[in-house]
Design a protein that fits this description.
This protein is α/β, with parallel strands linked by helices. It has two domains: 36 residues, no CATH class; 161 residues, Rossmann fold. It has eight helices and seven strands. A seven-stranded mixed sheet has the order 3-2-1-4-5-7-6, with helices on both faces. The longest helix is centred in the last third of the chain and has 19 residues. One of its GO terms (molecular function) is methyltransferase activity.
């Protein structure tokens, strides 16, 4: 499915009926051949937006998956770059692709770092956390950053209510809620639980100073608003 190298429909069905961790362990060998992997255009736009803020010392990709975020971290960080995820399968693929990085298996809701990084990023993973779990993640990132450190991630504008995209995402989230109501273990993957204002509020509550900047390389919508913004959370 998606491409000759991607997972079959049966493989995706098995994954979707597993836990999040087990599902990504199963998907890991073919994950980079699916649309779930963050596109290079988003990674590059993030890199371009962060580059004027200077070089960083050490960088961390939170929920790193197979390591796509290294495309952003490696050009921006002078010293060590690292990724953290709880899927052994995804980390194995990341280690193969980027042997020079450090890879840590951990639950991102309880990050095991203290003032160790200057830059943290995450790409396309926040939908795997329930809104009630975000404060623990953001508190852990805040703890992991040195004073003055930056946590950055792109966030897309919601599709217009009259668009196919809006109803597709609504239908997907509804299907996932029904699945999780009747099947265990749950597979947490929602597209409509991370609105910009909620992100800003949760980050501010964790102690960050929050701003945004448009990712101009990804274009603008018909109303002139940016398709994507980079959310910038600075630890004072």
């Amino acid at each position: 499915m998606f491409s000759p190298q991607g997972p079959s429909l049966r493989e995706l069905a098995v994954q979707s009926l597993s836990s999040v961790e087990r599902g990504y362990d199963l998907l890991a060998p073919k994950f980079d051949h699916t649309p779930f992997r963050t596109p290079d255009a988003i990674l590059d736009a993030t890199t371009d937006a962060l580059r004027p803020r200077g070089l960083f010392e050490r960088g961390l990709d939170v929920c790193c998956g197979t390591g796509a975020g290294m495309r952003t971290l490696e050009p921006l960080c002078k010293e060590q770059v690292a990724g953290v995820d709880f899927s052994t399968g995804m980390l194995a693929r990341a280690r193969e692709a980027h042997p020079g990085a450090e890879w840590i298996r951990a639950d991102v809701r309880a990050l095991p770092f203290s003032e160790a990084f200057d830059l943290a990023v995450t790409f396309g993973a926040l939908g795997h956390l329930l809104p009630a779990e975000r404060p623990a993640l953001f508190a852990g990132v805040h703890r992991a950053l040195r004073p003055g450190g930056l946590f950055a991630f792109p966030i897309g504008a919601p599709p217009p209510i009259a668009s196919v995209g809006y109803w597709t995402l609504l239908g997907f989230d509804a299907a996932m809620r029904i699945r999780n109501a009747i099947w265990r273990p749950p597979f947490v993957m929602y597209y409509r639980t991370c609105p910009l204002q909620a992100m800003r509020d949760d980050l501010a509550a964790a102690g960050f100073t929050v701003t945004t900047t448009p990712l101009e390389g990804l274009g603008r919508r018909e109303d002139g608003s940016p398709r994507y913004r980079l959310l910038l959370a600075r630890k004072p």
